[in-house]
Specification:
single chain, alpha+beta, Immunoglobulin-like, 66% helix
């Protein structure tokens, strides 16, 4: 029975890998073969691809289309005409959230289509339009945020209620009034970041197995001994460890590793675990801006703007350290009462209790876990050069540990926080809804109009504007929406050729995620771990420290960019 369970788990993880790969693969619609091919590429006002638009091709004045298709995820589309013997070609493009677009091929274009047997219309820009579905998606998203802030429902339930409302509006309301349409289920699934989902799933299994060896209790004892029992020093040590890890790993992986250790330490010291966990969350986001691989958004920005690993180190490392210092001081001040309560030095009784609990329970399992985890760290670091996403590394590592260290599948699957995973998926779809109807694009356009040609204003608007948006909008879709805006501004503002505005976007979308609990994936994942341990991180409680820290660090980041690129001439 146990062997069957192992096989079932391995097959499940392999299926997860397949979903991860297929989610990234383009969807190709079948077309008849024989005639010339007509193709194109659809984008919005921010040059982002438009998927799901309906394209109908009419020839020679025939009201019935001779070919129909939909744009793919990258905005591309193509059709094959039944014959090249045409004298007129009319392209009709429609989408629920964009103004209709028509194009009649010129005689020259028709001749090229006939001679070369193919013709591409290149990039066609579609203009967003505001529909009842626009307001429905926006109000639903705001309503979910209010429910979470007021703690009327659990986070996952609130997000599920929100996305369910969007689907009801789309399918029931849309049947009565087509203008209420938001997106269908398949399109909603496309907005889920499956890399994050499977990364968290794999790392939760890894952490659950490693925890059984007793290493976390040993680390708790070691940290207590190093801090000499002083909570203030312990907080600084944990912030330093988290920051170093976040510069080399993604934030979610870092918090999955350090959060269980921190809870063990806090419980041993009889300190409120949140007084140590929340500063670690904030530090993981702050330190992530220092390297190309520190955050998913930095990877996106680096690929889009041609900014390399060394560029981030030179231009953001010192700024990250300054910002981290500001954040640490703010945390020490905010948690000063909790620190004073327990900051009395080493306790012989507690020291001895921690020392006794620090014995490794499973040396063989720890050694094997260390080998697998060491290999995972190597592949995390080499992932970009191997085109290996962190989620694959996490799933493979989890599978190896299950087969080699802990074959009790039911126990390990019980260590997975499924509530947090469901919350992630529902929240991704909700953010996708407001992105689908064009809310993020309108915000991006407004920022572009406000900045104009002023470099200093551009830095401030991008850092503070994207930062405030990151309070409630996930950083990855927000970055995708703003990158074309930054590219446009960088080409027209004197001094922006240094790529300072890209660094401003990096700082804004990352540090802004510290403002609210829903602002970052690592925030939500850590909240899930804390809740399972019996110490839930409430929305309002996180906001009381998160909002001021986010504002302070955003201002510090903007000041650093001004010093680095304007005063010193970066």
């Amino acid at each position: 029975m146990r062997r069957v369970g192992r096989v079932a788990l391995v097959m499940g993880l392999l299926l997860g890998l397949a979903v991860l790969v297929l989610a990234k693969a383009p969807v190709v619609t079948g077309q008849p073969v024989g005639g010339p091919e007509l193709s194109g590429h659809l984008v919005d006002e921010q040059a982002q691809p438009v998927a799901g638009a309906a394209i109908a091709i009419h020839v020679d004045g025939d009201p019935a289309p001779v070919a129909e298709t939909h744009s793919l995820r990258d905005g591309s589309w193509f059709v094959t005409l039944p014959t090249s013997a045409v004298t007129a070609v009319h392209v009709d493009i429609t989408h629920a959230h964009y103004a209709p677009y028509q194009h009649d091929l010129s005689p020259h274009e028709i001749e090229q289509l006939r001679v070369e047997h193919a013709y591409s219309l290149q990039a066609i820009s579609l203009a967003h339009r505001i529909t009842p579905g626009f307001w429905a998606a926006g109000l639903t998203f705001v309503g979910v945020l209010v429910i979470i802030a007021l703690e009327k429902l659990r986070n996952a339930l609130a997000a599920l209620a929100g996305i369910s409302a969007v689907f009801l509006i789309t399918f029931v309301g849309g049947a009565l009034a087509p203008s209420l349409y938001v997106f269908d289920f398949e399109r909603a699934l496309a907005y889920i970041d499956w890399e994050v989902i499977f990364l968290v799933l794999g790392m939760m299994i890894v952490v659950g197995i490693v925890e059984g060896t007793g290493i976390f209790q040993w680390l708790a004892f070691t940290a207590y001994r190093m801090s000499r029992g002083r909570v203030s020093l312990l907080m600084i040590i944990l912030i330093g460890i988290t920051s170093a890890a976040s510069a080399l790993l993604d934030n979610v992986t870092t918090m999955l590793l350090v959060a269980p250790i921190t809870i063990q330490i806090a419980l041993a010291l009889e300190v409120d675990p949140l007084a140590l966990l929340v500063p670690e969350i904030l530090a993981s986001n702050v330190a992530g801006i220092s390297t190309l691989i520190g955050t998913p958004t930095n990877i996106m920005i680096g690929a889009y703007a041609g900014i390399g690993f060394n560029d981030f180190l030179v231009n953001q490392m010192l700024g990250a350290l300054l910002t981290l210092g500001v954040m640490t001081i703010a945390c020490l001040v905010y948690y000063r009462k909790e620190i004073r309560k327990h900051d009395s030095g080493l306790s012989p009784v507690l020291y001895e209790r921690l020392r006794q609990n620090a014995a490794i329970k499973d040396p063989v399992g720890l050694r094997r876990s260390g080998i697998v985890f060491g290999g995972m760290l190597i592949f995390f670091a080499l992932g970009d050069s191997l085109h290996l996403v962190p989620a694959v590394t996490a799933l493979v590592g989890a599978t190896l540990l299950l087969l080699w260290v802990e074959p009790n599948i039911e126990k390990m699957l019980g260590a997975v926080d499924w509530t947090t995973l469901v919350f992630f998926m529902a929240l991704f779809m909700l953010v996708g809804a407001i992105q689908e109807v064009g809310i993020l694009s309108l915000i991006a356009a407004a920022m572009s109009n406000l900045i104009g040609g002023n470099l200093l204003l551009g830095i401030l608007v991008l850092v503070l504007g994207s930062g405030l948006l990151s309070f409630v909008v996930a950083s990855v879709p927000l970055t995708a929406a703003l990158l074309p805006v930054v590219g446009f501004l960088s080409g027209g503002i004197p001094g922006a050729e240094s790529k300072v505005l890209y660094y401003a976007l990096s700082i804004g979308v990352t540090l802004g995620g510290n403002g609210l609990l829903i602002g970052g994936e690592s925030n939500l994942m850590t909240a899930g771990i804390a809740e399972r341990a019996g110490y839930p991180i409430r929305f309002n409680r996180f906001a009381r420290i998160g909002v001021p820290v986010a504002l302070l660090t955003l201002l510090t980041g903007a000041a650093w960019l001004f010093l680095r690129f304007v005063v010193l001439g970066g």
